[in-house]
Amino acid sequence: MLYQQSSRSVIQEEWHLPDLLDGARALHDALLNYAGDGVYADLLLPWLRDNPQLLGWLRSFAQRQGNPVPPASKEELWVLHAFSRIGQVLVLPLQQGRGNGEGWAGPPLSLAEYEAFVEALGMTVLRPAQFSPFYHEIVELQPAGSAHARAAILAWRWPCVMLGNMLFSRGGVDVCAGKTIFKPGIADASTLYWADRRKGRPVNDLSHGWGSNSQWRTSFRRDYVVGDTRLYNVDGKYDLATKGADTADDGRFPVLTLAERIELLTQRCLVSSTKAHDELWPYDDCWRDSADNGGVRERWPRWLSALLGSGRRGTNA
């Protein structure tokens, strides 16, 4: 893990987490079963009114302090995971293609209604102008005229959402970039990890393959912004900044280099590597980028491309 957490339970007495998880699951299932044409008024607004405990817990979690990352119990991570699956269902109408092999378009919800709902949950909507794998998910890639052109955002499909300084969900964007930065057919079509539902690309999530109850005991991936540092998957057990390149392929088929593991972790998919992408395991890795590790935060594509070519490790403070 990037940061050791306190072993003391962080569950406050006023929150009964099994009930909170049940409340989030109920909304998720209701969205899947909804057959009307006004899901915001018919389902989301009444749910917000009827679940003040869940709203209170989300706001309290957003304000929780840490050193620098706040602690969270596994039960709390289950509740956050349930909310992330709700969010993935709600942005389906803003995507094109088929989701998870299904023809369902998603619940009838506009972009404005989606933003109003997540803000009612106590979250913040962002649209960072400069592409970053922390804030942005590539939906569609257009090749740039120059092979080395840095990524530029062409359009937003849905916004990035934050819960305090924790990333709740990345924004979906159309991007233009050189083919040495993002490869067409890879960056926008390879398996997306930590994802339960998307249209137009395969997904992989730790909740997949389990029963109707067991799947909901899946932990949410936590990414944080702390000052000028971005922390990826803070609960992961392998810090890629300190783990040697000679052990970078532990348990991965096909073998991934250290740079490819960083790419997979930060982008949540492969974007430049052409290796098989459907049976990987990025879930134990963690990483940080900041101004103190060679400017990765501002220049990460160029830095990562160089690392891919050389096989060397990047430096990190």
Give keywords:
317 residues; alpha/beta; 3-stranded antiparallel β-sheet; 12 strands
Number of helices: 7
Percent in strands: 15-25%
Structural class, please? alpha/beta
Quote the average pLDDT.
87
Please give the alpha-carbon distance between the first and last residues: 16 Å
Q: Supply Rg.
A: 19 Å
Q: Helix-strand pattern, N to C?
A: HHHHHEEEEEEEEEEEHEH
Main sheet summary: 4 strands, mixed
What order do the helices and strands come in, and which of them pair?
Elements: H1 17-33, H2 39-50, H3 52-63, H4 74-90, H5 111-120, E1 124-126, E2 136-143, E3 152-158, E4 160-163, E5 166-169, E6 171-177, E7 192-193, E8 203-204, E9 224-226, E10 229-232, E11 238-239, H6 258-267, E12 285-289, H7 296-310
Parallel strand pairs: 2-6, 7-8, 11-12
Antiparallel strand pairs: 1-4, 3-6, 4-5, 9-10, 10-12
Task: Describe the structure in your own words.
The protein has 317 residues and is of the alpha/beta class. It contains 7 helices and 12 strands. The chain has helices spanning 17-33, 39-50, 52-63, 74-90, 111-120, 258-267, 296-310, and strands spanning 124-126, 136-143, 152-158, 160-163, 166-169, 171-177, 192-193, 203-204, 224-226, 229-232, 238-239, 285-289. The strands form 4 sheets. Strands 9-10-12-11 form a 4-stranded mixed β-sheet, covered by helices on one side. Strands 1-4-5 form a 3-stranded antiparallel β-sheet. Strands 2-6-3 form a 3-stranded mixed β-sheet, with no helix packed on it. Strand 4 and strand 5 (166-169) form a beta hairpin. Helix 1 (17-33) runs parallel beside helix 4, helix 2 (39-50) runs parallel beside helix 5 and helix 6 (258-267) runs antiparallel to helix 7. The two termini are 16 Å apart.
